[in-house]
Specification:
single chain; 186 residues; 6-stranded parallel β-sheet; globular; alpha/beta
Length: 186
């Protein structure tokens, strides 16, 4: 993008571009590792990996997941540690499970980084609900595992192949439904 030209000018053509910043292990075949942390009950699962934070908007993802038609897929959140937002997400899940038909939601912490590639490997969809993002490493990780993504229009997401971009988190359930019903699009 234009920042490359700008930085080249400032640093006298000493700028290097990193290819993707994803660890090589993400490009290798992985063994399923999610069962170390939880048991998937449905046909498969949708995944979101991000620190629990309002900017990452896991609560928005959760609300939309409850609205989507694919009740037979679990939703897995992975964040680094329990914090105020983690607690808010857990409470929101309790509230939504009373309002809607109960869903299988897994809100995980302290997942070993070495297990993450295997968790991506078996995901059916990767979901990003961020309100702000620069370069979404987690989307690149999902791409390296061949997992389609749905992301809000943040950072460089719209430039990345293999996913759908939404302008509003409230379009997530509609977009999940669209992608899950259309195998060719998937």
């Amino acid at each position: 993008d234009s920042s490359y030209d700008y930085l080249n000018k400032i640093y006298n053509k000493k700028v290097e571009i990193l290819g993707n910043a994803v660890d090589d292990v993400f490009f290798e075949k992985s063994c399923s590792t999610l069962n170390k942390y939880t048991n998937i009950i449905g046909k498969g699962y949708f995944l979101s990996v991000a620190n629990y934070d309002a900017v990452k908007n896991q609560i928005g993802i959760l609300k939309e997941y409850y609205k989507c038609n694919f009740k037979n897929y679990d939703l897995v959140f992975i964040g680094r540690e329990k914090n105020y937002y983690y607690e808010a997400l857990v409470n929101e899940n309790k509230k939504l499970s009373q309002m809607y038909e109960k869903r299988n939601v897994h809100i995980l912490t302290n997942v070993d980084r070495a297990d993450i590639p295997g968790i991506y490997e078996d995901a059916y969809l990767y979901l990003v609900g961020s309100e702000a993002e620069g370069y979404s490493l987690s989307i690149i990780e999902s791409m390296s595992k061949g997992v389609p993504f749905i992301s809000t229009d943040v950072g460089n997401a719209k430039l990345l192949p293999g996913g759908l971009i939404i302008n509003d988190i409230n379009k997530l359930s509609e977009t999940i439904n669209k992608l899950m019903k259309n195998k060719e699009l998937y």
